[in-house]
Design brief:
0% strand; mainly alpha
Length: 121
């Protein structure tokens, strides 16, 4: 029960921060979802650092991981918004933005996780 509460609290903070980042960085004029992109890449880096620290020296407990990785990073990053934004690109016929956003999100997301793990080694 404690871990469920920790995930709930971490997820709330992560979701609130994602909302703020989205409001600040998403560009309604161009339609480019910079806020979602930033949240997903930064969240990938953060989860890499968290899980890298956990694997490196067992300095994080299961409760820390539940709060930070599952809760905060789970709430901060968003696949559903990413999927919807790609739907909008495709529906409007903006195939170049769709391709660039999708490829950059996946490539930089993976690299950010690996970088986070590397940074704590």
């Amino acid at each position: 029960m404690k871990q469920i509460l920790l995930v709930f609290v971490g997820g709330g903070f992560g979701s609130a921060l994602r909302f703020i980042v989205g409001r600040f960085f998403n560009n309604p004029e161009s339609g480019i979802p910079y806020g979602t992109f930033i949240s997903n890449i930064l969240g990938s880096l953060i989860i890499g650092v968290i899980l890298g620290l956990a694997a490196k020296n067992n300095s994080l407990s299961e409760n820390h991981i539940a709060l930070l990785a599952t809760g905060f990073c789970g709430g901060f990053t968003t696949f559903s918004a990413f999927a919807y934004e790609n739907h909008v690109f495709l529906k409007s016929g903006d195939f170049m933005s769709f391709a660039m956003y999708t490829i950059a999100s996946f490539a930089l997301g993976f690299l950010a996780v690996f970088l986070g793990i590397f940074l704590v080694k």
